[in-house]
Amino acid sequence: MNRFQLFRELRRHIKLSEKRSPVYEQNKTAKVVIYLMSGFMILYLVFLAVMFSMIANNSRSFTACEFLFGLLPFFLVADFLFRFLGQQTPAQLIKPYILLPIPKHACVESFILSSMVTPNNLIWMFITVPYAIMSILFSSGWWTAIGFVVGFQLLVIINSQNYMLWRTMITQKIFWWIAPILIYGAMFLPWMIKDFDAMFDLFAAIGEGLSSWNILYFIGVLAILALFFMINRSIQYHFTYTETTGSANAQLKHVSEFRQLERFGEMGEYLKLEVKSILRNKNMRNSFIYSTAFTILLSLLISYTEIYDGTFTSRFFMVYVFIINGGMLLIKIMGAEGNYIDGLMIHKENILQLLHAKYYFYCVLLLLPFLIMIPTVFMGKYTILMLVSMMAFAAGPVFCLLMQMAVWNKQTVPLNSKLVSKGNVETNWFAFGAEMAAMFAPVIIISVLSAFMNETLTYVTMLLIGLFFIALRHLWLRNIYQRFMARRYENMESFRATR
Known about the structure:
By secondary structure, this protein is mainly α. Helix content is 74%, strand content 0%. The chain is globular.
């Protein structure tokens, strides 16, 4: 089997693996949402192409080719961030092939080449092709229009390889975020040092060279692409092999016993389990760090800037800052426990105690945004009543809603193996609906109450609703437990299949 045949066979395997997934039905449901969102995105990109074309056609200070390339740094940053929503790295796909009698790097090379022609890369053609037709084709000819589209697409592919490299490194260590920040920051450096025109002119010159089929520009772009290919080839194989074989074993240097939690009896043991799972397991630790860092960052922005001082934005982000941790972590509830669900099912009501422990743990985490938001009280942005009511509302109906996912989540989330894992908790209508409701329902309720009450009564009502759900926590947690137990065999089978 030559390399081309291997490439085609691996592409076929990827499609078959999706159909054989135990959560294929949920994936099909999620695809409907993805297709709808993709359709709206395509329409939006075409609209941007028309808008940019009108601007370029009415300008005399730059050519059409120069204009869109002058804005290239903004496109590349947006492209890099959007890839986190769905693009996998080759290391996430190579596990079944790592020990087969094929050339050492053949699978990695095939998956890297495959990633260059994915829809994630081709999506930007919904801007470049309409733009080229409306602004370049009739004024500069079809040869220049093709050069413009090809040149822009090559830079997008380079950006995809840049994402692949740093996504893999970030998976290993969070501090690797520094690298993409520096890379994309360097693109904006001429703007920061001099002015916007300096940055615009730099990338416009690159665009003009590629559009005119200047051989030196294409040699440079292809050389950069080849360099990224070789780096990714080595990095992807190294980390996949290391993680699969377990050759990089971590040594436990310190064991924390958290004896202070023993006073809570069996509940304390499950609280220990929650804390130790975050401290010891890479995936859970990284998710917790990301959500906590985002909470702190957003709290500081609200407290010390005027970015979110509008009526709607102030309400939305006041609510959002209290539900970030729950929205990012509780939505995956029971996913990590899927790794040892059989042990949890040995004793009666173990799951109920676990649900209580998780609830109390995330309630305690609400103190973090509350304390950070205290300065907003002295600045007059919010009141103590508003913060307390939002904290109670998050601990009450919001957490009650998010913890319903314990019934429906049935795909195991790996504790440590990130690169070669089978994926995160399945995307389904329940998770999507719960996340949207948790984000927007509190703001809608506040807006409706504000139409009939003054501000004080509005937030007193929110506080009372939150306290009502908190007081009834034993009832709705037991209800979640009973519904989970009614589905336990179906869930356990899926947990085992997705380990």
